[in-house]
Design a protein that fits this description.
By secondary structure, the chain is mainly beta. It has a single domain, classed as Porin. It contains two helices and 21 strands. It has a 19-stranded mixed sheet that branches. The N terminus is likely disordered.
């Protein structure tokens, strides 16, 4: 992994590459009609590489990302600790099959390697049926709870609620603008006295005709099912379910885009300490596109009862797309902690931190 480390170090000397997911693969300057942007959310990231039409029914593609993070923590007594992990290489390969207009299938594979840890997994595998305004998806997929909008390399604090499982999802669209969805999925966490087989959720999303405005909300029956595995230290067993709600909005008025999102647990986790048993977070970002191949963004986010995370965090991000399938991004975040809430490895109380993230992205 020495070559990866060297390349990642060089990335810190330049901005971060981002590309627009819906453009054909070219080596020319991106068209002015579509400004550069980092993926707005994880869903766009998963779809970004699907750009090569092999046959009338098969489309394939992938995304390669090389990411490097650096973080400096400052304790209440003034000591500094550094978190400087090896760069991480991530590859996602996708296959999309479309039969007529009513049947589709999608398979996504993910590989990650940071020099110490290597893993590969089936990220998503689903079959979709579209019958006019009615849709069905079944398979291994991310359920529609939260949008997780962000123009930064480093995801927002509220990403702790992103949830994936073997699911069945039904949706219906009214007036081509309002989508209502309900889903059930296989549970990974269980009540300590019995197995919990199924969890569920609901989502609602309103989109303007030109898609410049998108507003949504959702409900999830149990936060313990999230990808963050909140109850990992408790063998994924809970004393009671902790449901959660979320709401989000995206408003785009070129050359500016505003995104806002909030997520909160409805009940308290009985397993956690009193000051960290009812997670809550919100994130607000404004992105600005001075020209079609540059993006700048600012972030303000807040959390409470979210273990080990800052109370306030804000920062700046920049992205440059020199080629249509290549993007470079760099961001900086400053976070402050609630008193007596978070501690480093030496059990010293954290006061604040500085964090830098950089990323090189190539689509194929």
């Amino acid at each position: 992994m020495k070559n990866i480390s060297t390349l990642a170090f060089l990335l810190l000397l330049v901005p971060n590459f981002v590309f627009a997911q819906d453009q054909p693969l070219k080596t020319s300057r991106p068209p002015k009609s579509d400004p550069v942007r980092i993926y707005r959310n994880p869903e766009e990231r998963r779809e970004a590489g699907l750009g090569t039409q092999v046959t009338d029914w098969l489309k394939i593609g992938g995304v390669i990302e090389l990411e490097k993070e650096y973080r400096k923590n400052i304790t209440k007594i003034g000591n500094n600790t550094k978190d400087d992990p090896d760069p991480e290489l991530a590859i996602e390969l996708g296959f999309e099959i479309q039969y007529d207009e009513w049947l589709e299938a999608e398979v996504l594979f993910a590989i990650e390697d940071n020099g110490r840890r290597h893993y590969q997994e089936l990220d998503e595998a689903l079959i979709g049926i579209n019958l006019g305004d009615f849709g069905i998806e079944i398979g291994h997929l991310y359920v529609p709870f939260g949008a997780y909008y962000s123009a930064f390399v480093t995801g927002p604090l509220l990403e702790f609620a992103q949830t994936r499982g073997t699911a069945l999802l039904l949706d219906y669209t009214f007036w081509d603008s309002l989508e209502i969805a309900g889903y059930i999925f296989d549970s990974k966490a269980d009540h300590h006295t019995e197995r919990n087989e199924i969890d569920w959720g609901l989502s609602l999303e309103l989109t303007s005709e030109d898609e410049s405005i998108r507003i949504g909300a959702g409900y999830l029956s149990d936060l313990a099912e999230s990808e963050d595995e909140l109850l990992f230290d408790f063998n994924h067993e809970y004393q009671r379910r902790v449901p959660a709600w979320n709401a989000y909005a995206r408003i785009g008025i070129p050359p500016i885009e505003l995104t806002a999102e909030v997520l909160k647990a409805i009940r308290k986790f009985r397993e956690f300490d009193n000051n960290a048993n009812k997670p809550f977070a919100y994130n607000i970002e404004v992105a600005y596109f001075p020209v079609d191949y540059l993006q700048f963004a600012v972030r303000l986010e807040h959390s409470s009862n979210l273990a080990d995370e800052p109370k306030w965090q804000y920062g700046l991000a920049g992205a440059w797309r020199p080629l249509n399938n290549v993007t470079i991004s760099l961001d900086y975040l400053y976070g402050t902690y609630k008193k007596a809430f978070a501690f480093d490895d030496r059990e010293q109380e954290l006061s604040h931190h500085h964090m830098i993230g950089s990323q090189l992205t190539v689509a194929f």
